[in-house]
Amino acid sequence: MKLINMNKCLLLLLVFSFKWTIGQEKKLPIILDTDANNELDDQHALAYLFFNDETFDIKGITVNTTYNGGEIDQHYDEAKRIADLCDVSGKYPILKGANGNFDELKARAQSETLDGKIAVDFIIEQAHKTKKEKLIVAAIGKLTNVALAIEKDPSIKEHIKLVWLGSNYPEPGEYNQENDIPSLNYLLEQDLDFEIVTVRYGKKSGSDAVKVSLNEVREKMEDMGPEVEPVMGRHGGSFTNFGDYSIELFSKIDLYGDPPSRALFDLVALAVLKNSQWGEKRSIPAPIVVDEKWVDRPQNQKRITLWENFDRKAIINDFYKSLNQH
After folding, report:
1. Beta strands 293-295 and 288-290: pairing type?
2. What is the pLDDT confidence band of residue 24, given thresholds at 50, 70 and 90?
3. What is the dihedral of CA 38, 42, 46, 48, to 10 degrees?
4. Surface-to-core class of residue 183, CB atoms within 10 Å of its CB (0-12 exposed, 13-18 middle, 19+ buried)
């Protein structure tokens, strides 16, 4: 009888060990590339990433600049502020990327004084370190840092999966796209695993539909997240948790619609990585942008993945759940 019980215990231990090992292997290696100080969706994407470290193997955060939000130091400071508010200060590297755009910088990709070199080199280094599966580079701003990394070391293409939050495809426009079209076109021509999480302003089929109202934020976010030492906010004031800072961000930005709302675009790119059932994806021949408009290339052998039609309720509820667990 004792032998049988010992065998049962051993079997249970082996099963638990196997499940734990499999769970560890399924963590997704990821770098988040962000213009963190642009508006407010980057901050919520960062918080969601930090509060889902059981899903994501976070290698680091790289930052870049877009039209809004100031120079690179301001984007860096905002990313660091969110790390502090999420109680992960110092846990993950936060690295300054390019102030400039791809066309200005590509000829100097090999230079020791390249604008954004520290972030570019980090992407390359982490791509080569990832062995079992591809490194996910989740880009939620312009694509400059990623394009420079591939220009500097083309061999990383086989080691990364690029997931970009951007574009109104098939319609023109969209903020992230317009900030550096040459970097987008460059990457569309590469032999690269490339997924686009669509924005589509004003349409239900894009991440623009994943909106949150100011009233909902005030109701759901107060005191949410771990309690930390006071952190100075972007607009001043002092905050001891991410939830209260979220309310502040929503209170200080233009809101649209009835009720007044703002889309959490960037959050969607991470949510569909966590659960692919929260969006629909399809493969298309890689298009190109000409004169700021999309041009389809149906004969193109190079294909990309397009994400659309997102489950707003599931994504937002999971965001709240992630904060509540911490």
Report:
1. antiparallel
2. very low
3. 160
4. buried
> Rounded distance, CA 223 to CA 143, Å?
34
Q: Which two tokens stand for residue 139?
A: 């880009």
Query: How far apart are the C-alpha atoms of 235 and 74, rounded to whole Å?
Result: 12
Under the banding of pLDDT at 50, 70 and 90, the label for residue 25 is low
Structure tokens given for 212: 């949150």
Which neighbouring-strand residues pair with 311? none
For the cut 60, the answer to whether the pLDDT of residue 15 exceeds it is no
Strand partners, 164: 139, 196
Q: Which CATH superfamily is domain 28-214+263-312 in?
A: Ribonucleoside hydrolase-like (3.90.245.10)
Tokens 């010992």 correspond to what residue? 6
The single residue listed with the structure tokens 């942008």 is: 289
For 17, left (φ over 0), alpha (ψ -120 to 50), or beta?
alpha
Write the pLDDT tens digit of every residue in 276-321.
999 999 999 999 999 999 999 999 999 999 999 999 999 999 999 9
Angle at 242 between CA 237 and CA 243, to 5 degrees: 95
Three-state secondary-structure class, residue 56:
strand
Residue pair 311/278 in contact by the 8 Å Cβ criterion: yes
Q: Where are the domains of the chain?
A: 28-214+263-312
Specify the higher pLDDT residue, 191 or 16: 191
The whole-angstrom separation of Cα 62 and Cα 139 is: 9
What tens digit of pLDDT does each residue of 61-112 get?
Answer: 999 999 999 999 999 999 999 999 999 999 999 999 999 999 999 999 999 9
| CA 282 to chain CA centroid, nearest Å | 20
- Determine the Cα–Cα distance for residues 68 and 254; give it in Å rounded to an integer: 14
Rounded distance between C-alpha atoms, residue 250 and residue 87, angstroms: 21
